[in-house]
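Support case: uridine-5'-diphosphate-glucuronic acid complex. Customer-provided input:
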Amino acid sequence: MRMTVIGTGYLGAVHAACMADIGHDVLGVDVDEAKLAALAAGRTPFYEPGLQEILARTVASGNLRFSTSLEEAAAFGEVHFLCVGTPQQPGSAAADMRPIEAVVEGLAPHLHEDCLVVGKSTVPVGTSERLAARIRELAPVGARAEVAWNPEFLSESTAVEDTLRPDRIVVGVESHRAEAILGAVYTTMREAGTPYLVTDRTTAELVKVSANAFLATKVSFVNAMAEVCEATGGDVTTLAKAIGYDPRIGHRFLAAGVGFGGGCLPKDIRAFAARGEELGFGESLRFLRDVDEINMRARQRTVDRARAMLGGRFLGCRVAVLGAAFKSGSDDVRDSPALAVAASIQLQGAHVRVHDPEALENARAAFPCLDYAREPEKACEGAHLVLHLTDWAEYRDLNPAELVTVVDTPRLLDARNTLDLEHWRTHGWDVGALGRRPIAA
Ligand code: UGA
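Agent response - structure generated as follows:
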C-alpha cells in the first residue's frame, strides 16, 4: 500500500521505517531538510535502539523515500499518517496545534479521490472532527478524503518493537471504507494476533490521552508513597515490589524516583486537563493537577535531599550527575528531570558535571551552562556528591571500589532506586535514595 508519514520525529521516523519494513511503499515527509537528508542516507537523526538497521534496510530496498513536498505526498499516498508533534503551547497548558494545522492546510488542497488521512499525533479530544471539516473545505471537488484516528502507543527506547509488535492497535473510524483501509495497513499485526480495536474517532483520541494520564498517575502514585515513606521511615522500593505482585496493580511503572519527564507524559496530562476546562469537564480531570505537582515535587525533593547530604549548601561543592536523558535508552532531553535537577543545583552554586551515554550533545545544546564529561569516571572526578538521575544499565555496572578513589567524598544519592546501595555502602560510600531511609556508611 502507498502511504505517507508526515512528520519524521521520534514517532514518524519509526512508523515510516516500520511500515516500509512490513512491505508498504512509504514516503516520509518533513519540513526539516537536514533531517530528511540524514534519513534518506539511512542514518537516524536520534538514538533509538534497532531503528538504524531497519532504516538502512528499507531505504536500500526503495520501500522508504523522503520528501519535503506535501503536494508530492498528496499525489503519492492512498493513506497519509499525521505524525507531527503537538508540544505544549508557550505560556499555556494546552497543546500547540499549529504544526498539525499547517500540515492539513498544505496537504488538503492536493488530496485526490479516495485517500485516507490518519492522525497518529496525541491531540485534544475533538481534533479529528475539526480537521475533517477543514479537509472537506479545502480538498478539491470530488475528492473523498476522510479522516481516521489511530493513536500511537510507542515508547522511546522500545519504539521499533512497540511498532512492529504492538500490545494493541486502536483505530477510530467513521466509515467501513476507512476501517477496511486501516485493516489492510495493519494486516501483518492483525495476523500475528495483535488485539485490534475498531471504534469512533473521539474514543480513539481519548484512549491515547487517558493511557498517558494513567501511566503518569501510576508514577506519581508511587512517588507520593515515596514521600510517605520518607516521612515515616518506610522503604518505597519494598512497598512497590510488594503491591506490584498483586496482578491488579502490577510492577511496571511503579519505580519511585525523580519522576516522569520527556516529550509526552508531562505535556499530555496538562493538555488533557486544559481541554477538560475548555469543554466543561475540568472537574473530572482535576486530579491530574496533583499528579503533575507530585511529579514536580520529586525533582525538588531530589535537589533538597542532595543539598542535605552536602550539609545544607551547594556553594563551592562539586556534584557529578549520572544521566541527562529523560529516561534510559533515549537521547531525548525534552523536559528531562535529570537536567532540571542538574540545572537547579548549579544555579544554587555547585559545580555540576554531567555524564550520559547518548544524550550529551542534546544536553549541551539545551543547558550549555553545565559542564559535561564523556566518561562517568570523569564526571565523578573530585566530586563531593554523585547523583544518579537516569537509569542507564551501565550505571548499575559502575564499580564503587574504583570510583571511591576518584571522588573527593564517597557520597551517592540514587534518585532512580536502581543501584545496589548495600554494595556501594560496603565500599565506603555514604548512600541515600529517594523514598528510603538513609543508610549509614
Ligand atoms: C510515553 C508512554 O509510555 C507511551 O505509551 C506513549 O506512546 C508515549 O509516551 C507518547 O505519548 O508518545 P515515553 O515518553 O517514551 O512514552 O516514555 P515512558 O517510558 O512512558 O517514560 C516516561 C517517564 O516516566 C520517563 O521520564 C521515565 O523515567 C518515567 N518513569 C517511568 C518513572 O519515573 N517511573 C516508572 O516506573 C516508569
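The chain has 19 helices and 14 strands.

Case will auto-close in a few days if no follow-up is received.
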